[in-house]
Amino acid sequence: ADVILITGGGNGITSKIAVEMASKVPARYVILGRSEVSPDDYTTDKWDAEHLEHRKAELKEQIAGSGKRVTPVLIEEAVSNALKQRELQITINKFRELGRELIYMSCDITRLDHLKKCIENVTSKWGKVTGIIHGAGFEKSQLLTKKDKNEFFSIVDVKVLGAMHLLQLCPVEHLKLWVSMSSISGVFGNE
User: Fold this and answer.
1) For the chain (length 191 residues), average pLDDT per consecutive 10?
2) What is the distance between the alpha carbons of residues 29 and 103, in angstroms, rounded to a whole number?
3) 27, 66, 87, 89: which sits with the fewest CB atoms below 10 Å from its CB?
């Protein structure tokens, strides 16, 4: 069976593309993302407007319980992380519902040593990677003139270093598929 490796496939548009592909293409799938999978099940939580304030109150208690000062920034960060975790868990569940084999691994693809370890784990279990969808990205949407040097490189490194590392570790002669995704702001702008 083909082994399709998807970077950034746990959240956002890439996760939607990954699920759609899995619904049509029988293969073994590997999703690499920055997030660890939480042991808590976020898929049963309701995050609609009606329940959002209740969820925020719970997160405030968790932050306070950790000994940190509760601030609006920490609350919004906790909400954002919980929503990403929920989307990741829903994506994983959709692969299961489709009957597709899936490995999800947390991986920093800008670090060659991290990516190498992940790919070695996959190839030892399933064989060579035959397809790559490189959708990983770091969302920091604003005009280029407003980005500082560190922001610029954190965004570019995920796309460029990530692609270079993938090509270094997954020989092109084994690949039947390579898709590299850009940011939607590259098409529509962000003003």
Assistant:
1) 94 93 97 85 69 82 88 87 87 95 95 97 97 85 71 84 96 95 69 61
2) 6
3) 66
